[in-house]
Write a structure and sequence with these properties.
The structure is a single chain. The chain has 134 residues and is an alpha+beta fold. The chain has one domain: Gcn5-related N-acetyltransferase (GNAT) (Aminopeptidase). It has three helices and seven strands; from the N terminus they run E-H-E-E-E-H-E-H-E-E. Strands 1-2-3-4-5-7-6 form a seven-stranded mixed beta sheet. It starts with a strand and ends with a strand.
Length: 134
């Protein structure tokens, strides 16, 4: 059973290091989003950073897991939890969006598996959307 806890300022270094190591990005906007640590039981296994955007969607800024927690279905559990959160906060909630670097094929494959569709393409990134029904 997954649980979430809001990240404290003292834990920001953990999130930055995990993002660097596991998804090869340098997060610069964590403070602009709701950032939660993800736990499996008592073990911290990753974090997610997200926020509402215009158009009644939640933008997932970063979702990163410890290496040993990858490919175990935790990603889909987090996605479903964010969808529930979106529905609770806004009755007109329309879905999730994300931007993924084109070279991050595992993340693109996972996003497609979770129902995300490519809605745009830029030089280095894909824009993705996962619509949700009311």
């Amino acid at each position: 059973m997954l649980s979430f806890r809001r990240m404290k300022k003292s834990e920001k270094k953990y999130a930055i290091q995990l993002a660097r190591e596991e998804i090869n990005i340098e997060p610069k906007r964590l403070d602009e989003y709701k950032t939660l640590l993800i736990y499996n039981g008592r073990e911290r296994i990753g974090f997610v950073s997200f926020g509402f955007k215009p158009g009644k969607t939640i933008y997932i800024y970063i979702l990163a897991f410890e290496k040993h927690a990858q490919r175990q279905g935790f990603g889909s559990m987090v996605i479903e939890s964010i969808i529930r959160y979106g529905r609770e906060k806004d009755k007109c909630f329309k879905g999730l969006s994300a931007t993924i670097h084109k070279i991050n094929e595992p993340a693109i494959d996972a996003a497609k598996k979770y129902g995300f569709l490519v809605t745009g393409e830029r030089t280095k990134y894909f824009d993705l959307m996962r619509p949700v029904s009311s």
